[in-house]
Write a structure and sequence with these properties.
Structural class: alpha/beta
CATH class: Alpha Beta
Order of helices and strands: EHEEHEHEH
Protein name: Flavodoxin domain-containing protein
Oligomer: single chain
CATH topology: Rossmann fold
CATH architecture: 3-Layer(aba) Sandwich
Largest sheet: 5 strands, parallel
Strand content: 15-25%
Organism: Kandleria vitulina DSM 20405
Number of domains: 1
Strand order of the largest sheet: 2-1-3-4-5
Helix content: 40-55%
Number of helices: 4
Distance between the termini: 12 Å
Number of strands: 5
Length: 141
């Protein structure tokens, strides 16, 4: 199975989480610029940080999502970190639905503080999420 983990955030916390999830999936975390829209992936995990979102970051995320299509991406799973409100995740989910991307039902969204370190429970939850998504794709799709 071909799994890709793409990080669309710039904070250290989302990079740490994405890297840990990629290791669990036995692959490498990549930035959006390193992922080709024609690359095939059975499971694409997309991570972003909603704490530092502005219009420019929103355009970057939506631009990345608009380049994806069902011919090359079989399943999309989203994960994010936020501090107060997770409205941006709702916008990203609705945009994925408008683009007719094969979005998996489960999301991994974690409320974190502005500290530099992620709690071990967040990293463990990310590993469990990756394992669950891989099992779903292997057994049901």
């Amino acid at each position: 199975m071909n799994i890709a983990v793409v990080n669309l955030g710039r904070s250290q916390q989302i990079k740490t989480l994405a890297d840990d999830m990629a290791r669990q999936a036995r692959t490498y975390m990549r930035e959006a610029a390193d992922f080709s829209s024609t690359e095939h992936a059975d499971l694409l995990l997309i991570g972003f940080d909603t704490r530092f979102f502005n219009k420019k970051r929103e355009r970057e995320v939506f631009s990345f999502l608009s380049r994806l299509n069902r011919e090359h991406i079989n399943n999309v799973a989203l994960f994010s970190v936020y501090s107060h409100s997770n409205k941006m995740m709702k916008h990203v989910v609705s945009y994925c639905q408008k683009q007719d991307l094969p979005l998996l039902r489960d999301l991994y969204s974690v409320q974190v503080s502005f500290s530099k370190e992620l709690p071990p429970s967040v990293l463990q939850g990310g590993r469990v999420y990756v394992d669950d998504m891989v099992n779903i794709v292997n057994n049901y799709y």
